[in-house]
């Protein structure tokens, strides 16, 4: 996989580091600005994915996130949770133990993943982390129907424990056209069918707006029709997963209003890779744009 916009690679334009001193009016002691979102004003809560800001220390990112008005920094490992929690934030969705390429669609992976995911669910529950991510894995010649069957078998071994511990297990929808070639959970109908087969309120989808715009478009209608099966959202500009501004084809205020109208009260995670500097100014602008 050679895409320049993945969680395993950070955009080279961020190299060299970004100093907090470059951000006007930001300090760890400030309170969130009145114009920034809260649960009561936006319905949902705001989050950001750490991997998009790999050159910024987590503690510094958490200070700015708190100032902006975010509630979470997500896709963190267990040893990072305390850093954000010490600043009054949470990790909306933790890293799980599956990988994008090697996931739940192979029976031979199940024993190892069931054990490791149950252990991660326990860690999340003990630390009051609400959700953990996992992936379907690549097709590698497997039919979609067989993938559904295999994923459901494996997930049913996990969700009972997730129900007992009160942790959501979330499978992400990713595009297989540009970024994650051959990934199986690459369309909303496939994901919705899997949620139905698993049959647990603790298993839902991560609807990544960037990825699904590439694969199927019709974002607002999909959200309206499938919101009951969605437990988390990610943003991102298309094309290029850059800022969610006027440079790209998605109009996020309308999308956020559609999410709000469903009654969703979970998290929306900003997952674009900033091309502009200072990068955290782009995050500030995105959160304001999505505050509907």
Topology order in helix (H) and strand (E) letters: HEHEHHEHEHEHHEHEH
**CA-based shape:** globular
* Radius of gyration over all CA atoms, rounded: 18 Å
Terminal Cα span: 36 Å
What are the low-pLDDT stretches, counting only 5+ consecutive residues below 50? 1-40
Number of strands: 7
Please outline the major beta sheet.
7 strands, parallel
**Tally of alpha and pi helices:** 10
Structural class: alpha/beta
- How would you state the average pLDDT, rounded? 89
Helix-residue proportion? 25-40%
> For the largest beta sheet, what order do the strands appear in spatially?
2-1-7-6-5-4-3
Portion of residues in beta strands equals 5-15%
Features:
292 residues; alpha/beta
3D structure, described in words:
- With 292 residues, the chain is of the alpha/beta class.
- It contains ten helices and seven strands.
- A seven-stranded parallel sheet has the order 2-1-7-6-5-4-3.
- β4, α6 and β5 (203-208) form a beta-alpha-beta unit.
- α8 packs parallel to α9.
- The longest helix has 22 residues, at 144-165.
């Amino acid at each position: 996989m050679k895409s320049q916009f993945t969680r395993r690679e950070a955009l080279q334009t961020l190299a060299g580091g970004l100093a907090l001193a470059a951000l006007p009016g930001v300090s760890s002691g400030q309170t969130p600005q009145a114009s920034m979102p809260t649960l009561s004003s936006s319905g949902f809560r705001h989050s950001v994915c750490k991997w998009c800001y790999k050159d910024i220390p987590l503690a510094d990112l958490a200070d700015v996130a708190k100032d902006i008005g975010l509630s979470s920094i997500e896709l963190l490992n267990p040893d990072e949770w305390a850093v954000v929690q010490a600043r009054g934030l949470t990790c909306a969705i933790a890293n799980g133990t599956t990988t994008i390429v090697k996931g739940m669609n192979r029976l031979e992976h199940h024993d190892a993943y069931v054990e490791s995911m149950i252990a991660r669910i326990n860690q999340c529950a003990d630390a009051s982390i609400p959700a953990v991510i996992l992936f379907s894995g690549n097709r590698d010649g497997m039919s979609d129907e067989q993938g559904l069957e295999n994923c459901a078998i494996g997930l049913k071994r996990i969700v009972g424990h997730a129900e007992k511990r009160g942790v959501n297990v979330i499978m992400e929808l990713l595009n297989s056209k540009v970024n994650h070639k051959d990934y199986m959970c690459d369309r909303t109908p496939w994901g919705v069918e899997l949620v139905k087969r698993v049959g647990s309120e603790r298993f839902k989808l991560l609807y990544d707006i960037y990825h699904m715009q590439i694969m199927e478009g019709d974002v607002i209608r999909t959200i309206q029709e499938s919101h009951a099966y969605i437990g988390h959202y990610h943003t991102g500009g298309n094309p290029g997963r850059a800022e969610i501004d006027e440079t790209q084809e998605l109009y996020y205020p309308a999308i956020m209003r559609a999410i709000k109208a469903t009654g969703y009260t979970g998290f929306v995670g900003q997952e674009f890779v900033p091309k502009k500097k200072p990068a955290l100014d782009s995050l500030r602008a995105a959160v304001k744009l999505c505050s509907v």
